[in-house]
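Tokens as discussed.
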């Protein structure tokens, strides 16, 4: 960061140095609870992006040959530094993104899990060997890094998702160019500073900022071999198509409409608490939020208790103790969510709990929407078809589990789903028949730990391989197959000991 007057200017990271951008286009980074301008972030110029990629390309020449143990030790140090600075990172994140301090710490810690996983790269980046596949012939594979890779990350998890990307890319031997969200880039920059402190060499990690123009430059740049993206379906589809046409590997984690199916035999108190937390936590601004609850059979009678549970949640600034629901990221997001709530009313859904315009003492300018619940929602309504990305829960009804499964499977998205029940038979049937990538059984947000991979599906994902876990090692490496045969020196009549000079 640098200072110009009273406003912090966010810098770029190029070739191991934090540099001031020469861009004429800048954006304010705003505290969503107060509208205070925290910093100004540049939209990097094409020359600056090219310099970052050139630095990464040059660094790759030596980094790819760095011993795998040396790479792992850097990330062992990095995870230690993140733990030591956890409170600081969470405070930065809360100020610029708005989520509660507890959520902000969770954001960092979930990313930290991937850093810890990356530190075990020696056990992950292993090839295969088949001995004597023919007479005297062996075949084996090498998992070799691709080169320069890039990551485009969203505003809602400004620590976790960058940490999904560059640690695994770098430990597998690649170099990286990160483009954080221009809405909240400050915690990503602090993580980059800690990465350099941990020993990441110059050029191995670079950070640039910008909007659509910078995204297109990343997609088109001939020296970038792979792009990882997390964000909206609209932008993700554009990135996938454009970068794929440019010959790159691409993975895009995109929009969602996650359903929780509640059977009447579920534990009522725990289920309602889980639904409230999954629907309204992080102000609903997460791709794995539960945005639809399907109450099956007699569970339909639980709606009043669900509304009462939601009413107990405290709306306020993320930095205030006891806050459950913080502000939305921007005034534009506030207007969009409010507009969708209004459309839901016009289209005939019943507004059981209206969270618009909550009174938040001391934060009159904040982008606040409280927990909002609709009942009587049908599949043709806008509030069901669109990803609201706010603290809004749509409640639907079904007579049977199979009817609920049919509703979920008819939705185009496939990020996550959950079933609440005490029946093992129902759970097994659900997990077998549901067409969604990530399934929770009495777990509302079934994001897997990093030894597995994030496995969203259908319209929620483009690309075959997901972030972190075993799949990301495949994504960031090229499999090279070697078939070799060595002749016995006696058989070919040559000397047993020969000195070979490589020139």
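Sequence:
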């Amino acid at each position: 960061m640098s200072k110009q007057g009273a406003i912090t200017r966010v810098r770029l990271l190029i070739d191991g140095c934090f540099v001031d951008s020469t861009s004429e286009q800048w954006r304010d980074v705003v505290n969503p609870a107060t509208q205070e301008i925290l910093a100004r972030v540049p939209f990097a110029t094409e020359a600056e992006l090219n310099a970052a990629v050139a630095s990464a390309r040059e660094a790759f020449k030596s980094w790819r040959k760095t011993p795998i143990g040396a790479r792992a030790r850097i990330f062992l140090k990095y995870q230690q530094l993140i733990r030591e600075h956890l409170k600081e990172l969470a405070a930065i994140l809360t100020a610029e993104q708005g989520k509660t301090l507890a959520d902000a710490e969770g954001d960092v810690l979930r990313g930290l899990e991937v850093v810890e996983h990356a530190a075990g790269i020696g056990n992950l980046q292993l090839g295969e060997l088949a001995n004597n596949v023919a007479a005297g012939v062996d075949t084996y594979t090498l998992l070799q890094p691709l080169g320069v890779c890039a990551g485009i990350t969203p505003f809602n998890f400004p620590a976790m998702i960058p940490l999904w990307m560059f640690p695994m890319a770098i430990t597998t031997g690649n170099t990286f160019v990160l483009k954080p969200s221009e809405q909240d880039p400050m915690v990503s920059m602090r993580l980059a500073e800690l990465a350099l402190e941990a020993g990441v060499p110059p050029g191995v990690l670079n950070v640039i900022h910008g909007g659509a123009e910078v995204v297109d430059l990343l997609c088109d740049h001939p020296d970038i071999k792979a792009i990882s993206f997390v964000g909206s379906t609209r932008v993700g589809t554009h990135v996938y198509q454009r970068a794929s046409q440019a010959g790159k590997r691409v993975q895009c984690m995109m929009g969602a409409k996650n359903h929780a199916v509640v059977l009447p035999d579920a534990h009522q108190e725990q289920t309602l608490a889980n639904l409230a937390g999954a629907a309204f936590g992080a102000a609903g601004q997460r791709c794995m939020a539960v945005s639809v609850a399907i109450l099956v059979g007699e569970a339909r009678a639980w709606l009043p208790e669900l509304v009462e549970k939601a009413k107990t949640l405290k709306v306020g600034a993320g930095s205030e103790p006891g806050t459950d629901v913080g502000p939305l990221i921007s005034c534009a997001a506030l207007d969009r969510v409010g507009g969708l709530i209004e459309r839901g009313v016009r289209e005939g859904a019943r507004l059981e709990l209206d969270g618009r315009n909550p009174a938040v003492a001391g934060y009159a300018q904040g982008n606040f929407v409280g927990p909002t619940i609709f009942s009587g929602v049908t599949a043709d309504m806008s509030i069901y078809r669109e990803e609201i990305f706010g603290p809004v829960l749509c409640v639907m009804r079904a007579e049977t589990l199979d009817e609920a499964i049919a509703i979920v499977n008819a939705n185009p998205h496939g990020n996550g789903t959950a079933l609440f029940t005490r029946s093992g038979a129902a759970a097994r049937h659900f997990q077998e028949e549901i067409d969604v990538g990530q399934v929770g059984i009495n777990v509302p947000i079934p994001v897997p730990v990093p030894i597995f991979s994030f496995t969203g599906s259908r319209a929620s994902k483009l690309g075959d391989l997901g972030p972190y876990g075993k799949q990301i090692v495949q994504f960031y490496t090229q499999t090279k197959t070697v078939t070799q045969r060595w002749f016995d020196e006696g058989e070919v009549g040559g000397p047993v000991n020969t000195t070979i000079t490589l020139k």
